[in-house]
TrEMBL record:
Natural source organism: Anopheles dirus
An example Gene Ontology molecular-function term: G-protein beta-subunit binding
This protein's name: G protein gamma domain-containing protein
Keyword Repeat: no
GO (cellular component) term, any one: heterotrimeric G-protein complex
Domain G protein gamma, first and last residues per copy: 4-70
Protein localization: Cell membrane
Length: 70
């Protein structure tokens, strides 16, 4: 009996998830791409990978210096 109840509860959760996904407002791919391109062009001046870093200290991708004590 517990198996039936847990199965029913699982099916209800799946159904609820499918209802939430079906209610999502969708847009066309061309509109999504246009929005992405607009966002990227508006924020490209802030992108450190495109314009570089002001100094090496703020660069999170720099090689870490190793300290070796002999």
């Amino acid at each position: 009996m517990d198996i039936i109840a847990s199965n029913l509860q699982q099916q209800r959760a799946i159904t609820e998830q499918l209802r939430r996904e079906a209610a999502i407002q969708r847009i066309t791919v061309s509109q999504a791409v246009a929005d992405i391109v607009k966002y990227v062009t508006e924020h490209e001046a802030e992108d450190c990978l495109l314009v570089g870093f002001s100094s090496q200290k703020v660069n999170p991708f720099r090689e870490k210096s190793s300290c070796s004590i002999l």
